[in-house]
Amino acid sequence: MALASGSPQFSHIDTGGRSLRMPFVIVTSLFLLWGLAYGLLDVLNKHFQEALHVGKAESAWLQVAYFGAYFVVSWPAGQIMTKLGYKRGILIGLGLYALGAFLFIPAAWMRSFPFFVGSLFVLASGLTCIETAANPYVTVLGPPETSERRLNLAQTFNGVGSFIAPLLGAMLFFNIAEGPQAGLGGVQIVYAGIGILVLVIAVIVSRMWLPEIHEADTLVHDDEPATSLLHQRHFTIGVFTQWVNIAGQVAIGAFFINLVVENWQGFTSADAAYLLSVGMALFLLGRIVATSLMGRFSPRSILTFYGCANVVLTLIVTADIPKVSSVALTATFFFASATFPTIFSLGVKGLGAQTKRAGAAMVAAVSGGAILPPIMGMTAERWGVAPSYLLVTLCYAMVALYGWKYSKPLPPKVKGRMSAMALASET
Q1: Same domain (yes/no): 93, 177
Q2: d(Cα 122, Cα 308) in Å, to the nearest integer?
Q3: Per the domain annotation, does 3 fall within a domain?
Q4: pLDDT reported for residue 180
Q5: pLDDT for 39
Q6: pTM of the predicted structure, to 2 decimals
Q7: 175 — phi, psi (to 5°)?
Q8: CA 255 to CA 332: how far, in whole Å?
Q9: Residue pLDDT, tens place only, 234-247
Q10: How many domains are contained in the chain?
Q11: What are the C-alpha distances in Å from 159 to residues 279, 294, 396?
Q12: What is the DSSP-derived secondary structure letter of residue 370?
């Protein structure tokens, strides 16, 4: 999953007459790196249940560590970019990413689940630093009129990484010949390889020219209403919806392998991991389709439809129909693909000078991914995996409701009345 953050506005970029092609290629490769990390996350969840004998609720601490890092580290990462620059910020992020990956090796030797959780937090902290820098870089490495196209292109590599990762997990984590207990050797191989790859990219980045980016001060126009963000309904409800959306999206994958193994007779964990890669491919396809549809339909309509589709699909999952529920769960990835960027863009629309603050709040909403999986795990342990997906149904019902009713900015007169009421309450 690419968790796009708000892109600041820039006055100019110093190229010195040099081409921006290679800097764009290098920065785009970073999207592949965090696609690999996210794609492996859900495979690790099931694998550790088998190899380390942890329960479903306990295994969800992997999601807590991964998405909790975004909440904890996002603000310090922004400060690092401001003080040290984007290139150094990227290098710090790559260093943390590599360190977290290499820490998986002693964690496997010790067979310590808490050690794995801590290692993943370090790795995700590096991803947070990288992502804080990558989106702004991509938007300015070329003509302004094609910035959105470049960002969409870069984010497709996130989908490629997310597709490859479950395939690696299926081949190396679930060793059928030796049993799941021996599979931690596969974890060591995969994360050692990732750590080396990240270090190689870090060396390349350190030796490459990356252009300096100069932020422009955001201007407030005279006709722009100075309304508090808290009085912007499409923003405040949008942040909550984003939090719920990420919670649901992460929960879909967190217990995907558990659901498929229990629902599809004869399926092993490795088979389910291969099916997860199909889901990740659908995620990539869903994003491409949504982007093309936005030329014909409004983003609000697409968001409402995607949300409603996942409400129906997750209800089929909770019915626990043999094989059918597994197919329905795989299909949810398609309709989960475009919800984050669409909610993000709708939530910050028309906010003018406050867009950057609004974007930061939207990024903080990623922490929703750290909350629902443990709750879902406890629900699954008590009532079963399939019924626990009813929690995901509720998440996408909120997404559909936001797209249908709350995503449109209020007319100026309504916002004016809200501001007057707020002023009256203060006096």
Answers
A1: yes
A2: 36
A3: no
A4: 44
A5: 83
A6: 0.74
A7: -85, 100
A8: 13
A9: 888 888 999 999 99
A10: 2
A11: 11, 20, 21
A12: G
